[in-house]
Every structure is written in C-alpha cells, then in structure tokens.
Amino acid sequence: MRQLIYFMTFLLYSTLLSCTVLKNNQNNQLIFELETTSCYGTCPVYKLHIYSDGFVKLEGKEHLDKIGIFKSSLSSEQLNTLQELFEKASFFDLKNSYTSSFTDLPTKYITYHKGDITKQIMAYDNIPKSLQSVIKKMEELIEELEWEKVK
After folding, report:
1. Which DSSP symbol is given to 93?
2. Cα four-point dihedral sign 30, 38, 71, 94
3. Are residues 33 and 47 in contact, defined by beta-carbon separation less than 8 angstroms?
4. Going from the N-terminus, what domains does the chain have, and what CATH number goes with each?
5. What whole-number distance in Å separates Cα of residue 129 and Cα of residue 134?
6. Distance CA 123, CA 138 (A)
7. Is the Cα torsion angle 62, 65, 67, 70 positive or negative in sign?
C-alpha cells in the first residue's frame, strides 16, 4: 500500500511539473527555427527552436553528440545578435528555396517568425552568403551553449 501511495504521489508530481514547464514555454513566442535533414554520410540531423525570452530547445536525432531533447538559454545580447543577423540578411526578401542538382547535401530549413509574419527558407545549395552567416551562427549555438537534457 505504501508503495502505491509513493507511486501515485510521484506520478501526480511529475504530471504537475510537466504541465508547469509546458505552460511556461507556451507564454513565449517562437522566433527562430533551424531544421537539418540527413545526407548520404554522417550529417547531423536536428531541430533547433529559439524563443523570445531566450529559451532554446534542441532535438538531436542523428550524428550529433546530443541525441534527445535538450534545453538551454540565450542571453538578451545573443538573441539580439541573432535577430540582427536575420535583419542584415534581409531574410524576408530572400528566395524561398536554394537548390541544385547535387544529391548528397543535407537540406536546412530556416524559419523566422516576426510578429504576424513567418517565412521559411529551404537551403540546400547555392545559398547566399548572408543566409550562410545566419545558418552558421545558429549551428555555432549548438556547440557554444550549455545544454541540459530534458528527455
């Protein structure tokens, strides 16, 4: 009987904690996203989400030293720098996709949410330097940030 009570208490606590974490994240606006797909080799496959309060979520899927779901945070300075890069690249004026005839490159989907406007760019090859800078900065965050495993 005592074990059942402990188990039920643990289950209730876990559920409430999970709801609190999700609720806190729902109050923030998603601003930036980067998703990479696989290639024929060992290209990292992941999704990176960055929110308005600096909360960062990484979902590592393959060929990355962080497999699973991780969280971290950006300082307001890091967040501003990233936003400036997107603006400097004139993200909303760029084409929606950059392709080529090659077949062994990973595809990168970069999304920017600014107010009521959202744009996603599919970047495969022939990517303008300004967009390459945005991608590079987002990829560097994966190495620079201190990550806490969530799941």
Report:
1. G
2. negative
3. yes
4. 29-149 (3.30.1560.10)
5. 9
6. 14
7. negative
